């Protein structure tokens, strides 16, 4: 068998290159996992223009918080500080990408999107409404310095 390349079935090849299924609103269904790989798989599976937003968000967060921890839980990328919890999550909806700041009421200025949860605030990013990267970086930096959520 040495020197021969193993053959894989057409079904296995299709599954290896298939994108994950999209849940309600176009949110990618990605298995729970820790580290950069599941987050990158989520970003790659974000539909249409949202994938570019995901790449920009991820790069901004990594640039702003060196050594940031990453995971995908509940089909959403999470960003945090090891030992301190998660400070930010991302989720895809039909018409926008939602950035959740878990201690958003402590940020200045407070992000615009209200939540049913007392401390959480959102920034919704729409296709034709570019976000202010400097303001977002400031919120990310502030959020990373606050106690995170244990999830």
Automatic annotation (TrEMBL):
Residues 1-24 are annotated as: Disordered. Pfam families: DUF1801 (PF08818). This is Histidine kinase. The keyword Kinase applies. The keyword Transferase applies. The lineage of its organism: Bacteria, Pseudomonadati, Pseudomonadota, Alphaproteobacteria, Hyphomicrobiales. GO terms for molecular function: kinase activity. Keywords: Kinase, Transferase. Residues 52-143 form the YdhG-like domain. InterPro entries: YdhG-like (IPR014922).
């Amino acid at each position: 068998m040495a020197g021969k390349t193993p053959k894989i079935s057409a079904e296995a090849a299709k599954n290896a290159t298939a994108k994950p299924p999209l849940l309600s609103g176009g949110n990618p269904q990605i298995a729970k996992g820790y580290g950069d790989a599941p987050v990158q798989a989520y970003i790659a599976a974000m539909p249409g223009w949202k994938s570019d937003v995901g790449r920009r968000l991820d790069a901004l967060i990594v640039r702003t918080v060196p050594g940031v921890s990453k995971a995908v839980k509940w089909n959403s990328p999470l960003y945090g500080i090891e030992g301190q919890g998660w400070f930010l999550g991302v989720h895809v909806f039909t018409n926008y990408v939602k950035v959740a700041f878990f201690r958003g009421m402590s940020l200045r200025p407070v992000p615009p999107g209200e939540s049913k949860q007392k401390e959480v605030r959102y920034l919704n990013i729409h296709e034709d409404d570019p976000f202010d990267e400097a303001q977002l970086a400031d919120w990310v930096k502030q959020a990373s310095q606050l106690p995170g959520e244990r999830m």
